[in-house]
Design a protein that fits this description.
Chain A: It is found in: Membrane. The structure holds two protein chains of two kinds. Chain A is an alpha/beta fold. Chain A has 13 helices and 13 strands. Chain A folds into two domains: 215 residues, no CATH class; 147 residues, GMP Synthetase, Chain A, domain 3. In chain A, strands 1, 2, 3, 4, 5, 6, 7, 8 and 9 form a nine-stranded mixed beta sheet that branches. The longest helix of chain A has 30 residues. Chain B has one domain: Amino acid/polyamine transporter I, CATH 1.20.1740.10. Chain B is mainly alpha-helical. Classes of the chains: A alpha/beta, B mainly alpha. Chains A and B meet through helix 1, helix 7 and helix 10 of A and helix 6 and helix 12 of B.
């Protein structure tokens, strides 16, 4: 074999090597089990029970009933156990006819027992895995995670997609944080902040079309409230009302509603929609003690008037009531963070670190104690800017006579 | 090698040669040292790079518009030239290993985890040989495509990240202190050192010598600015604490990017743009190493030594890339200690010798 032939062979081999790179580790689409939701529960004392909701593409095309060749079941939920998450995932292959594929996962649901034991292994597994999206939602449930991921909610045929959409439209309720894997990893690794995850639970909210008289015969996944962590361990829950106070500290609040009592009219209520909520936290450091000054600036619209007086009459009093309510909301969430859980999920440490980097070095190791003792003041500025379409109160024409 | 390239091609080559490693591997390493000050460290490194590139161009212009190796031969004898060529060959071998770390870990860890390492080494060498064989003008033209890819990639990652950007993650500024931030810039220095050493070999083939100094410095400035966007986004979007966790930090940012609700996981598109820049890095490392090898052996045509050099670079690169921990220890701990002194020391040494000889020459 002469030099020319060797050169041609080497070149041909190199060319083939490059051209077939796409074949390494190839995964045919009909060999994949596409996971759309993952549930993690504790199994025994220290083992993992992994549930996955796998979509059946032929049955999840948006139509009701069984399409030809399909089963009529849009999802296939399975469960396996292992000493680690990866072992449990591999054990799925014992009975799953397809290879589990994580890239289309919408949500990871963690059972309360698992969350209280610690979620460091879960954060590591899902952030080390190149298939998973960092925008995957992460939630905690007081129910069995396996049950939550198998429950069809809303109008979607795939439960994972339903939870994804709940998160998208939950912004208008503002009762649960938009906790995704990226934000969870960030707060878990940060020195001046603790993780907080959204809470989901099963509640009998659905009405069966076949048995409309049996209200609540269908369980639905409800996204409301939050779970508070210290390090990787869950400490407890925040109610939906508490979560409303939390949200402005950790994310942008686009919209929120507040219900206030009508001035001098017990039992009558008015609804205000917060159109703009701007909140700042200014830390201070005096004589070895930390102060936190919270300033809120709120623009609100009156969207439902239940009072007997017109907007012009009640406007100023409603502003005072809303201001009081918003200040109480902030004080309440600080009470929970400082006294009940003694964990800084409000990112006060991060804010303090940014403003006092030198002092932070002194207090960082005992930040939870400093945070618990911090003096908090709240100042809220409220403006009711619009009664939307009408100025007058809803009074019957007969009463006016 | 009688080919001449334009200053624009030089700029494009420098940008490509610096970019691929600097946005990911380097930023992860810097984040492990100075956390949220990684963007400052990168900018400080860029300023040092501008000075070093200007110095290198100045030395070459002063030394009679020949490559650094030829200037050394002229100033201190044939063996001095061979010694400099040997040091530079060693430099490009090390640089190629870090480039291969970048190329392989981007593609293998995120897209082809089951493919063997050797595949990436062979693919890199095949493309590198193709480019290096066709010479500097072909690579210069490809570098224009590379610059276009860099710009598109930067735009795509900005569009996909800006919604998640939190400026508070960049605070407090200079939290690690000036000394540590400056010291951490040595990692970005290793990236521009590949560019300045390429300039040391390539500059005599660039047109308009009067513009060499400015073109070299501006090239590093442009490269630095296109790179600096990444540590700012990585800190602002992922946080410094998350960035420092990853070997290839930029891929973590890329796979977190999404444009609106429906366009996400488009890192495959981004990595295609990245690959252009990475492949030009590979070609240039191989080309410069072959030129150095030809100077050591004493042959005029560097192409004769392309294959042996490719085997040397490929073998070393494979050994380093095959073990992730070894690769990161080499890239983060050992490589800056060799690369930065070479990139600064050789122009200073040769410039100094040239000046001394000029002073000794009797005035006519």
């Amino acid at each position: 074999m002469n030099c020319r032939s060797i050169a041609v062979l080497v070149l041909a081999w190199s060319a083939v090597s490059i051209l077939i790179t796409g074949c390494f580790g190839k995964q045919e689409i009909n060999d994949l089990a596409m996971v759309t939701a993952v549930g993690l529960d504790l199994y025994g004392d220290n083992q993992v029970s992994l549930s996955v909701q796998i979509v059946r593409p032929a049955d999840a095309r948006g139509q009701t009933g069984a399409p030809s060749g399909g089963t009529g079941e849009p999802i296939y939920s399975i469960q396996s156990q292992g000493r680690t998450i990866f072992e449990a995932a591999r054990n799925l292959a014992r009975f799953s006819s397809r290879r589990v594929y994580w890239a289309h996962n919408f949500v990871i649901v963690i059972g309360e027992d698992y969350a209280r034991r610690g979620i460091a292994d879960m954060i590591d597994f899902f952030t080390r895995n190149h298939e998973l999206r960092m925008s995957t939602w992460v939630v905690v449930t007081p129910d069995k995670a396996s049950e939550v991921i198998a429950t069809i909610t809303g109008m979607e045929v795939v439960p994972g997609e339903a939870i994804d959409k709940l998160f998208r439209y939950n912004q208008i309720v503002a009762e649960a944080p938009g906790s995704n894997m990226m934000r969870l990893q960030e707060s878990f690794l940060a020195t001046g902040a603790e993780p907080v995850l959204a809470k989901v639970q099963l509640k009998p909210r659905g009405i069966s079309n076949k048995k409309p008289n049996q209200f609540g015969s269908l369980k639905q996944v409800v996204l409301s409230g939050a779970a508070v962590f210290k390090g990787d361990k869950m400490q407890g829950w925040l109610s939906p009302k508490d979560a409303k106070g939390l949200l402005p500290f950790i994310e942008k609040v686009d919209s929120e509603i507040a219900i206030v009592n009508c001035p001098n009219e017990p039992g009558k209520r008015t609804t205000l929609e917060l159109k703009k909520l701007k909140q700042t936290m200014k830390p201070g450091w005096k004589d070895g003690k930390i102060t936190l000054r919270i300033k809120q600036k709120i623009d609100a619209n009156l969207v439902e008037l239940g009072c007997s007086n017109s907007y012009a009459v009640v406007r100023e009093q409603l502003e005072v009531k809303l201001r009081q309510q918003m200040e109480d909301q902030v004080k309440n969430i600080f009470d929970i963070a400082q006294q009940q859980y003694r964990t800084d999920f409000l990112k006060a440490g991060q804010t303090f670190h940014n403003r006092y980097p030198q002092e932070w070095r002194k207090v960082a190791a005992e930040w939870d104690d400093y945070f618990a003792e911090a003096d908090v003041t709240v100042q809220t500025d409220v403006k009711l800017t619009s009664p939307v379409l009408k100025l007058k109160e809803p009074t019957s024409g007969k009463e006016l006579k | 090698m009688n080919v001449r390239i334009t200053n624009g091609m030089l700029l494009a080559l420098v940008m490509n040669v610096i970019y691929a490693k600097a946005i990911g591997i380097t930023q992860g390493i810097i984040a492990r040292e100075v956390a949220s000050d990684m963007w400052l460290s990168t900018l400080i490194g860029m300023l040092q790079g501008i000075a070093a590139a200007w110095l290198t161009a100045r030395v070459i212009r002063m030394g009679g518009q020949a490559s650094m190796i030829d200037i050394a031969s002229k100033a201190a004898g044939k063996w001095a030239g061979k010694l400099i060529a040997a040091v530079l060959l060693l430099f490009f071998t090390g640089a190629f290993a870090t480039v291969l770390v970048t190329f392989t870990y981007h593609l293998m860890d995120y897209f082809l985890p089951e493919a063997p390492v050797i595949l990436f080494v062979v693919a890199a060498l095949a493309v590198g040989l193709y480019g290096a064989y066709h010479g500097v003008e072909v690579m210069g033209r490809m570098a224009f495509v590379g610059v276009f890819s860099i710009l598109i990639l930067n735009i795509l990652v900005m569009m996909g990240s800006i919604a998640e950007f939190d400026v508070k993650n960049l605070l407090p500024v200079m939290d690690s202190g000036l000394a540590r931030t400056v010291w951490a810039s040595r990692h970005f220095d290793t990236d521009w050192s590949l560019a300045t050493m390429m300039i040391a070999i390539l500059l005599p083939h660039v047109k308009k010598p009067q513009r060499w100094g400015r073109a070299s410095a501006v090239s590093i400035l442009f490269a630095g600015l296109t790179v600096a966007i990444w540590p700012i986004l990585e800190t602002g979007v992922l946080s410094a604490e998350a960035t420092r966790e990853y070997i290839v930090a930029c891929m973590q940012l890329a796979r977190s990017a999404h444009i609106g609700l429906f366009l996400h996981r488009y890192e495959m598109i981004m990595v295609a743009f990245f690959a252009t820049s990475s492949l030009i890095q590979i070609m240039m490392s191989l080309f410069c190493a072959s030129v150095c090898a030809s100077k050591i052996v004493g042959v005029n045509d560097y192409r004769l030594l392309l294959l042996p050099t490719a085997l040397l670079l490929g073998g070393t690169g494979y050994w380093i890339v095959a073990d992730h921990l070894r690769a990161m220890i080499f890239t983060a701990d050992y490589w800056p200690l060799f690369a930065v002194p070479v990139a600064i020391g050789i122009p200073l040494l040769i410039g100094g010798i040239s000046m001394l000889r000029r002073n000794k020459e009797p005035a006519v």
